[in-house]
Amino acid sequence: MEKTDIKSLTPEELVSLVKDFGEPKFRAKQLFKWLQSGVENFDEMTNIPQTFRDKLNQNCYIAGVKIVRRLSSKLDETVKYLYELYDGEYIESVLMKYEHGYTVCISTQVGCRMGCSFCASGIGGLKRSLTASEMLSQITAAQRDNNIRVSNVVMMGMGEPLDNFENTVRFLRLVSDDDGINIGLRHISLSTSGVVSGIERLKEYNFPITLSVSLHAPNDEIRNSIMRVNKKWNIDTLLKACRDYQRVTTRRISFEYAMIEGVNDSDECAYELAERLKGIMCHVNLIPANPVKENSFKKPDRGKILHFRDLLIAKGVNATVRRTLGADIDASCGQLRQKEGILNADLL
Ligand code: SAH
Ligand code: SF4
Questions:
Q1: Can you tell me which atom of ligand 2 is nearest the CA of 227?
Q2: Mean pLDDT for each 10-residue chunk of the chain (348 residues)?
Q3: What residues pair up with 254 in beta bridges, in sequence order?
Q4: pTM value surpassing 0.85
Q5: Residues 6 or more apart from 278 whose CB is under 8 A from it?
Q6: Which of 333, 335, 336 to mutate to test the pocket of ligand 1 (most atoms within 8 A of CB)?
Q7: H-type helices in 206-284, by residue range?
């Protein structure tokens, strides 16, 4: 019989699990607290009787992530982790320190099948989606490794969260539970390349998270040339879904726009973008394109990026330039990848 991924279970599901084992109901809460605190095996659960721990061991497993490499930036306090999963796959995630606390950028899949041309995460395609427990474990492992508490999570690592919808929703519920890691949904951002079917489903949950939409282009011609997903859901369809999402959740949407020299950085692009975003309560995050060795995309110079920002602001669009963290350890947006990247990193 296949073992149960116990760390992905909700408090209610744990109640029915302990009942099946003939244990009293209060054990469910004890279990949930232990699991979400990041324990790696059942023997750490000191208030659970040995006989029950043995049963758990036989029937369940704790999907942790094992730290294989840790790269610390010399430029800022960013740390990038390479984790090994129970089946030998690898993922990366990043711990960042801000004035207001610690943020973890988690991966949601091993690889990615969306194939955006500027991004390293999708180069090898999709291996598999992560379970909710594996998403949670990226946070608990970073907390334990540094003896800190993480206050914010961004789902902006490897993978497309809305291409892993069920596990993403499960993760959001578990991570925000008072008895668990307890990070409020308002402190979580979910980034999508524009999977419209997923945005429509997510809207029904009305989570107070920040939805970040990777737009990266003001028109279909440019977007088609860099993002395959646009051929399925074009900009009009995507922005309609964003408007609907906003109407239901009343949350401001964040649009990400990776600035790539000669591709999407002209004044016309800024004007066109401002025009298309009219009427959407939003914020545009300009991300200087980060280098990926497999492509030749470059970021425009700083002056050009600031000029683009100012054009948007002049047209009434809220816009800022995202700070680049962990530049010396390939820990920035779009640079996370499976094992190969980090093992070949120059720093090692
Ligand atoms: N799959 C999701 C979330 C992960 S990517 C998504 O695409 O939104 C996180 C962000 O990094 C996205 O906005 C993505 O477009 C951006 N990104 C990818 N490659 C990049 C690169 N080389 N430079 C700058 N941003 C990049
Ligand atoms: Fe996947 Fe996001 Fe990278 Fe596109 S940008 S390949 S959706 S991780």
A1: 4
A2: 95 97 97 96 96 97 94 91 94 93 97 94 93 98 96 97 98 97 98 98 97 98 98 98 96 97 98 97 95 89 97 97 83 72 42
A3: 212, 283
A4: yes
A5: none
A6: 333
A7: 220-226, 229-232, 235-249, 267-276
